[in-house]
């Protein structure tokens, strides 16, 4: 059955889209690395919001990160986005690159809060954390890849069993 829209096509489009997004995001972070209020300054000075700014009232977050964590994180996160995004888009080690992308995205959720603008409803600021959606889509890619590998092993085993049975039937 050749359908234009099938599960495998959706998986490939999702995997490539997520990989390209992270690849471009890493490049953009390096391009905006040293500008005022750029990526590096944000990592060094930003307080971890965890829930979101203003939730509960008076909550100002934790931090900023200690320098021995913030400096390597600031330098290596964009590189990790570039490398892992490219590997994910190109279908290399999907399970492991996807897991690392989820962990990296979770660290971003912890930094900026689950509800970045302090509300779930539109209020003129970013009100939905797209990173939660990204983690879910990456997880779906990981599970589909694992399922596809499992089915491939089953087909190979069935083929081997069939050829073994066919050869003993001929005798």
Which SSEs are present, and which pair or pack?
Layout: H1 7-31, H2 39-45, H3 67-89, H4 94-112, H5 130-169
Please, could you describe this protein's structure?
With 171 residues, this protein is an all-alpha fold. The chain contains 5 helices and no strands. The chain has helices at residues 7-31, 39-45, 67-89, 94-112, 130-169. Helix 2 (39-45) crosses helix 3. The longest helix has 40 residues, at 130-169. The two termini are 37 Å apart. Mean pLDDT is 80; it is low at 120-124.
Give keywords.
171 residues, mainly alpha, 5 helices, 0% strand
User: How much of the sequence is in beta strands?
Assistant: under 5%
Query: Which sheet architecture does the biggest sheet show?
Result: none
Order of helices and strands: HHHHH
Radius of gyration: 22 Å
DSSP strand count: 0
Q: Calculate the mean pLDDT score and round it.
A: 80
Morphology = elongated
Give the class from helix and strand content and strand pairing: mainly alpha
Low-confidence stretches: 120-124
Helix content: 55-70%
Tally of helical runs: 5
Distance from first to last alpha carbon: 37 Å
Task: Summarize it.
It is built from 5 helices and no strands. With 171 residues, it is mainly α. The longest helix has 40 residues.
